[in-house]
């Protein structure tokens, strides 16, 4: 697990986000056990108090459940898990919108530009993938 | 918790500490920053009773420091004080003989972790290795509090990373750490509390996560504001 921190956002929220991303991409799934607070602190190179705070936040958001002394697990609540992907995407789109706000671009133009760029990116990605396959 | 309440200290006419108050809780990492001469080292020495203060008070877990209490606090100065001709193994044996709270098991664990060789002589160590050995000697003591003076000073990037990793491990768990440094960039995400000093005065103190949360500023951002005036 590798995570680069920016120093201007609370570290514990960056850790929570890291877990959300792993859940949204299926790397962490419902019922999976996650490292102990101590292990996480060690793996990510963060202060154990920060790991503790991140886990508390995730518990409060219902992302993880901890029963007794057994390791914490990713929740099996599918509604909560389903919301994570949406939450991350909405957040990313909002950030993007804020960044183009000053350019005052009409919605249609913006949407078509996004489509073009996205298709271009996907095309070059699949080309790259094929290229890699060709080598091996 | 280590508490400093309005601590004042003079060297002759020079006011080194001009009424310093802060708390360093157990189980947290508190960082004293400041340019050279700000009073960082003096504060650590004052807590250890190594230098007298003129006024104010220092309390450890609620009471004035006394002899037995100092067994629960380890002070690691910025320089290794072991004689150069000693091998690391000799240093360990010495500590074992003289300190009740020396933890051999932890010392050996750290030796492996820091990739140091017990047969090496102290005066053959590079700066980075010496800094790691110095920190090791402190960490291997069973103590509730650790005062670390410039643990990153003059240390290469790789040793610095190894030292930083200690602060996210169970080596420091449950202990109260006070460390001084002016090289904060790579370790700022490890700090719980920051106390900024300037010419013996505290200019700012805060919890680093609160600072990020409430003002969106990194510790380095705040340092720039405080010291570049």
Description:
The complex is a heterodimer of chains A (136) and B (229). With 136 residues, chain A is mainly alpha-helical. Chain A contains five helices and two strands. Chain A has a two-stranded antiparallel sheet. The two termini of chain A are 27 Å apart. The mean pLDDT of chain A is 89. With 229 residues, chain B is an alpha/beta fold. Chain B has one domain (2-79, 141-227): Rossmann fold. Helices cover 30% and strands 26% of the residues of chain B. Chain B has a six-stranded mixed β-sheet, with helices on both faces. In chain B, strands 2-1-4 form a three-stranded antiparallel β-sheet, covered by helices on one side. Chain A: It comes from Paenibacillus terricola. Chain A: It holds the Pfam family GntR.
Mean pLDDT of chain A: 89
Specify the CATH class of the largest domain in chain A.
Mainly Alpha
Instruction: Please tell me the CATH architecture of the largest domain in chain A by its name.
Output: Orthogonal Bundle
Query: What's the CATH C level of chain B?
Result: Alpha Beta
Listing every helix as H and every strand as E from the N terminus to the C terminus, the arrangement of chain A reads HHHEEHH
Overall morphology of chain B: globular
Tally of distinct domains of chain A: 2
Termini distance of chain B?
Answer: 32 Å
Counted beta strands of chain A:
2
- Please give the alpha-carbon distance between the first and last residues of chain A: 27 Å
How many beta-strand runs of chain B? 9
Radius of gyration of chain B, CA atoms, in whole angstroms: 18 Å
> Which percent band covers the strand fraction of chain B?
25-35%
Which sequence of strands runs across the widest sheet of chain B?
5-6-7-3-8-9
Measured as a percent range, the helix fraction of chain B is 25-40%
The CATH topology of chain B comes to Rossmann fold
What proportion of the residues of chain A form beta strands (DSSP E)? under 5%
Q: Can you write the helix and strand succession of chain B as a string?
A: EEEHEEHHHEHEEEHH
> How many helical stretches of chain B?
7
Give Rg of chain A in angstroms.
19 Å
InterPro entries (chain A): Tscrpt_reg_HTH_GntR, WH-like_DNA-bd_sf, WH_DNA-bd_sf
Protein name (chain A): GntR family transcriptional regulator
Domain HTH gntR-type (chain A): 9-77
Keywords (chain A): DNA-binding, Transcription, Transcription regulation
